[in-house]
C-alpha cells in the first residue's frame, strides 16, 4: 500500500509540475515582456541586387569612310528575383530596341569614354520603355556595360 501511495504522489507531483510549467509559459506569453519581443524579432531582410547578363551584341555602326562594328556585352541590375523569366520572354524586344539605339549612334559618339554613363542611362530608358509598352514588369535599376569593343 505504501508503494501505491508513493506512485500516486509521484504521478500527482509530475502532473502538478507539468501544469505549473504550462501555466507559467502561458502567463509569460500573456504578459509578453518587451525583451521577449526584441529577442524573437527577426531582422529585416535586405534585398540583394541580382545581375542578369544578356547575350552579346554585334552591331554595325556607320562611319565616315567605312562601317564599324560594336561588340557589346551588358548586364541588367535589379532587386526583383523573378526578373529572369521576364527577360527570357522579352529578350527579342530588348535586343531589337538596343540594336536600333546603337545603330543610330556614330562611331565618334560610341568611341568616347565620357559617353559611357549617358549610353548606359539611355539603354536603361529604352529597355524600360519597351518592357512597359509590352506590359512586362520593368523594375530594372541599372544597365551595366561589361564589355564594349569598337572596330
UniProtKB/TrEMBL annotation:
It is found in: Cell inner membrane; Cell membrane. It is a single-pass membrane protein. Its main location: membrane. GO terms for biological process: bacterial-type flagellum-dependent swarming motility; chemotaxis. Keywords: Cell inner membrane, Cell membrane, Cell projection, Chemotaxis, Cilium, Flagellar rotation, Flagellum, Membrane, Transmembrane, Transmembrane helix. The keyword Transmembrane helix applies. GO terms for cellular component: bacterial-type flagellum basal body; plasma membrane. It comes from the Bacteria. Controls the rotational direction of flagella during chemotaxis. Belongs to the FliL family. This is Flagellar protein FliL.
Amino acid at each position: 500500500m505504501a508503494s501505491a501511495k508513493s506512485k500516486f504522489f509521484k504521478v500527482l507531483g509530475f502532473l502538478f509540475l507539468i501544469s505549473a510549467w504550462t501555466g507559467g509559459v502561458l502567463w509569460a506569453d500573456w504578459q509578453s515582456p518587451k525583451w521577449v519581443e526584441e529577442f524573437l524579432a527577426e531582422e529585416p531582410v535586405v534585398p540583394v541586387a541580382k545581375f542578369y547578363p544578356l547575350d552579346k551584341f554585334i552591331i554595325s555602326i556607320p562611319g565616315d569612310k567605312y562601317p564599324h562594328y560594336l561588340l557589346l556585352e551588358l548586364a541588367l541590375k535589379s532587386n526583383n528575383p523573378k526578373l529572369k523569366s521576364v527577360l527570357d520572354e522579352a529578350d527579342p524586344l530588348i535586343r531589337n530596341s538596343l540594336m536600333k539605339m546603337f545603330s543610330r549612334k556614330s562611331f565618334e559618339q560610341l568611341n568616347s569614354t565620357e559617353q559611357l554613363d549617358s549610353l548606359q542611362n539611355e539603354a536603361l530608358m529604352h529597355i524600360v520603355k519597351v518592357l512597359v509598352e509590352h506590359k512586362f514588369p520593368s523594375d530594372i535599376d541599372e544597365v551595366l556595360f561589361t564589355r564594349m569593343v569598337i572596330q
